[in-house]
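This entry is set out below.
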Amino acid sequence: MKRHLFLIALLLFSASTVFSQSATEKEVYELSMNKWKWMADKDITKLTPIFHPEAKFVHMSGTWTTERELEIIETGSIWYKNAAVHDTAIELFGNTAVVWNRITLTAHVRGNDVENEFTVTEVYQKEGSEWKMLALTFSSVRDTHEIEK
């Protein structure tokens, strides 16, 4: 019974968080969540239109361009197998959106599966009716890290 009450409370809390977002925040949130799925699926057809051609990607082992990031995803030299998103914060600044996702990333790197805790910062800018990612930065954090909202 306690378990059912806990699940109901969790669902209500999750629903209230989603409903408190603006339409723009929901749009950016959905794009960010889809991006993780497309990265896991190595779907560069869906990723290419959202990555700005001059974007930068900061990882534990370096910083590179959109072209290199797409190559890494397509070849699987880093396979983003699963990003379990624990928390998200979104702030809007005119036509710019900043997304912070606290994740546990399971990735396949250099022949090994690895799991790391990150806060990932994503910067998007609206160009016409489309959002373009300008930057994606992985910051290593402890699993107790919280995003201040």
